[in-house]
Amino acid sequence: MSTPLFWIPRLTVDSGHSATSAVTRFLRWHHGRGHVVILGDDVHPQTSSQAFSQPRAGQVWHANWPITGDHDGPVDLVVPADQLLALRAKPKFIRHLRRLIVTRPPALPLPELERLLMAVPQESLYLDWSSIGHEAIAYLLTKYATAQVEGVPDDALHLILAIADHIHRPAMLSDFSGRAPVLLGKVAMPAIPTVSGLSPRNLPARHQWL
Amino acid sequence: MTDLQHSIPVMTVTTTRACWMRCAFCDLSQFVALKGGAHIPPAVTVQQFPDLWPDEQWVKIRGGLSVSERFEYFTHLVQALRQRTASPIEAYSAVELEYHHRVSQRPLHEMVRYLQYAGASTLGPGGGEWLSDPVRNQLSPHRLSAQRWLEIAQIAAQEGLLPAGEVVVAPFAEDSLREHLQMLKEVPLAHIEIKPLRVAKTALTMVEPPHLLALADVVSTTREHFPSLPIYLSGPDLNDDSRWVLLDRGLTKFLDPVTEVCP
Fold it and tell me: B58 pairs with which residues across the strands?
């Protein structure tokens, strides 16, 4: 069976009291599933080696490139595609990657992006929706059978469902909580839609002109 | 990627106000009332064309079936265009030829020669020519049959006016694609034009336009069947990523409309 294509709703919030209600609302809107990124000064943009100890139980660091120092726990790392080769110079870091979220720098052509992606581990590969664009993501998902998509907003859900349909991967609502994913489906359309007055029942098999 | 290496600029000319065939996929298909002998001026006149345009800009003339325009109207327009440009002119299709053949009882060979003499470079493929009668019967029951389209395309090819083939990409036509391509192989073609189904202003507005991956699959399948024929894509305004994907699958160029002349 093919790897599911996960839709992981994401909410980015500042830490603090007001965030709690936003998170509660966000989870309620998404069947209790969702990924919350809490912004903080100690992980962005330069991260010290101490910061890479696990932040808290059930949480994982979500760090932006460039990374300095060392670490000792799983991490989600956001890397521009043109820095992927530099990432290879940090094999110890790659070993601890939970997710490698690749963004696309402006004006990077799709063939070049595809070439750069070959340099990184495919099993943890996430493609950033907003910077890569849904056409390029559709194409890349035909090439990388286990790749996932990061940051698909609610109003683009229909696009990810259409892609999943074409590449024959089940689309599922999920997160990293360990709860069972929820299968998402498209509404089936009739094979050949007709309108009243144009229905085949109202017409002869073929009109003869003369 | 809209450079001339990958793109052919096209002037599209529509020569009919409305068409009585009422094909579900066509924005020209409206009910046309007969006007009881009242004079209806021609839909498009020569004065509407620009005086000159670049030779690399193709001309595509779209017809349609109307009771008010005679075959000479079409040939005169082609002739007028030819006097203004050396660029390729793709004129009309088997649909218009069959109609005027039946109305005026002229031999098809003769009509093809007239078009050629007037200056046409290729015979157009038509608006939505699925060469599969089950699909045609549902969407365009007044249109000529798939077999008849093929016969007329073969006559045009015999006369030296190569027809263009067409593949309309629509979700309900996926199953008949190979049958369609197999029939197209029975006639020498100038090129194949792939068109995503356009649903705006038609009876099919509820149908989703084809996905990029569906287009890419059709391009690949068409290329498998026609390894050396030029394959063009016309219609949607695509971004560079989409264009690259389609070129990668075997598309030759994009037909990009730059000028439109219509009633």
Answer: B10
The ipTM, to two decimals, is 0.82
Quick one: which of B149, B172, B141 has its CA closest to B23?
B141
CB spacing of B239 vs A203 below 8 angstroms:
no
DSSP line for A65-93 = SP--S---S-EEEEEEGGGHHHHTT-HHH
Tell me whether A136 touches chain B (CB under 8 Å).
yes
β-pairing verdict for A182-184 and A171-173: antiparallel
CB B114 within 8 A of CB B156: no
Tokens of A161: 């469902």
Six token digits for residue B50: 């620009």
**How close A205 gets to chain B, by Cα (Å)?**
7
Pairwise CA distance, residues B164 & B142, whole Å: 22
- Compute the distance between CA of residue B90 and CA of residue B23 in angstroms, rounded to an integer: 21
Chain A positions in Cβ-Cβ contact with residue B247 (cut-off 8 Å): none
Q: Is A142 on the interface with B (CB under 8 A)?
A: yes
From first to last of the 263 residues of chain B, give the pLDDT tens digit. 556 588 999 988 888 777 777 787 777 766 556 555 555 666 777 778 777 777 778 989 887 787 777 888 889 989 988 988 889 999 999 999 999 999 888 999 999 999 999 999 999 998 888 888 888 888 888 888 899 999 999 999 999 999 999 999 988 777 889 999 999 999 999 999 999 987 777 777 777 788 999 999 999 999 999 999 999 999 778 999 999 999 999 999 999 988 888 77
pTM of the model: 0.85
> A with B: how many residue pairs have Cβ under 8 Å apart?
70
Which of A5, A134, A135 should be substituted to probe chain B, the one whose Cβ sees the most B Cβ atoms within 10 Å?
A: A135
Beta bridge partners of B14: B62
Instruction: Report d(CA B258, CA A113) in Å as an integer.
Output: 31
Residues of B in contact with A200 (CB under 8 A): 137-138, 141
**Which residues of B sit within 8 Å Cβ distance of A?**
22, 24, 99, 102, 135, 137-139, 141-142, 145, 171-172, 203-204, 206-208, 211-214, 216, 239-242, 244-245, 248
Would the CB atoms of A198 and B22 count as touching at under 8 Å?
A: yes
